[in-house]
Amino acid sequence: MDLQSLRTFDMVVKQGGISSAAKKLNTVQSNVTMRIQRLESELDVALFHRKGRSLVLTVAGRTLQEYAQKMLQLEQQTTTALRHIGSESGELRVGSIETFAATELPMVLKTCKEAHPNISLQVYSSTTSDLVRRLLGHELDVIFASGPVEHKELVTESVREDSLVLVHKRGSKVKDLPLILFREGCSFRAQAMAWRRSCGDTELKLMELGSLDGILGCAAIGLGCTVMPEKVLKASRRYEELTVSQLPTEFTRTQVQLLRHKDTALLPSMETFKNILNCQPENM
C-alpha cells in the first residue's frame, strides 16, 4: 500500500469520481482506476459502491479514508520538517486574516525571508474560522487569526490585543446605516452583529465584502458602517475620509494570535515569526 495509491484514493473521495480526480492529479483515468483496483486487490475489500458514474464509499472505504488522511498528513509534515532542518529550505504555508495581512504581515514576511532566504512562502488570506479549519486539516502550517481561539489540537500564542471601533463616514447617522462586514467566520463580524442586536436592532441590514479596502471604501462614501481594529483604520489610505465612534466596552476587545497544529514541528521560520512579533513596539 504505497503513498501514491493512497493519495489517488483520497483525491477520488474528495472529487467524487475517477474523471475529476484524474484531472486534479494531471493523469489519465485509466491510471486512477488501476491504482484503486490495486488497493482493493491488496486489501481484499471493495472501497466504493459503483452507481453509474457515481462512487460511494463502502464501510471499508470510509475506514481507509480516515487512515489515509492521517498517513498523508504525516508524510507532508515529515517532508516539511526535514526540508527545514539544516538547509532551511522548503515551503511554509501561511494564513492570515485580511486586517493583519494588510498591515503587519508584509513586514513579518519580509523579515522572515531575509532570515531564511531558501524558504518558499505561500500566503492565503481568509476569515478566522476558515483559517482554523485549514490549519486543522494541515492545509496551512501557521496562521494569524483574530481571537481568542482555543482548540485542543492547536498551539496558540497571543501576538497583541486590539481595540475595535465603529468606522463610518464623517457626519453620517450610524443608526441608519447597514453593517459592512467580512464573510461569515470573521470575529469582527460576530462582535459587530452582537453590538447591533444589543441596541435593539432585530432586523440586521448587512453588506458582505471580501477585502479590507472594499469595506473601507464603501464606508467612506456612506454606504454603511463597519467594525475593526482602530490601528487598521489608521494604516489605511482611507483614514482621512472616515471617522470612528466608540463601542461599548464589551464589544471592543480582540486579539491577534499566532497558531500552529500541535502535530507540526516548531520550524525555524515559525520561531522567527515569534521573535519578530515579540520585538515589535506596542504601538506598531
Structure description:
The chain contains eleven helices and eleven strands. Strands 3, 4, 5, 6, 9, 10 and 11 form a seven-stranded mixed beta sheet that branches. The protein is of the alpha/beta class and 284 residues long. The chain has three domains: 3-83, Arc Repressor Mutant, subunit A (Orthogonal Bundle), CATH 1.10.10; 88-161 and 255-278, D-Maltodextrin-Binding Protein, domain 2 (3-Layer(aba) Sandwich); 163-254, D-Maltodextrin-Binding Protein, domain 2 (3-Layer(aba) Sandwich), CATH 3.40.190. 32% of the residues are buried. The radius of gyration is 23 Å and the shape is elongated. 43% of the residues lie in helices and 24% in strands.
- Helical residue percent? 40-55%
Under the CATH scheme, which architecture of the largest domain would be assigned? 3-Layer(aba) Sandwich
Number of helices: 11
Number of strands: 11
User: What is the C-level CATH assignment of the largest domain?
Assistant: Alpha Beta
What class, by secondary structure content? Answer: alpha/beta
N-to-C span: 52 Å
Could you provide a short overview of the structure?
With 284 residues, this protein is of the alpha/beta class. It has 3 domains: 3-83, Arc Repressor Mutant, subunit A (Orthogonal Bundle); 88-161 and 255-278, 3-Layer(aba) Sandwich (D-Maltodextrin-Binding Protein, domain 2), CATH 3.40.190; 163-254, Periplasmic binding protein-like II (D-Maltodextrin-Binding Protein, domain 2, 3-Layer(aba) Sandwich), CATH 3.40.190.
Name its key features.
D-Maltodextrin-Binding Protein, domain 2, 3 domains, Arc Repressor Mutant, subunit A, two-stranded antiparallel ribbon, alpha/beta, 11 helices, 43% helix, 284 residues, seven-stranded mixed β-sheet
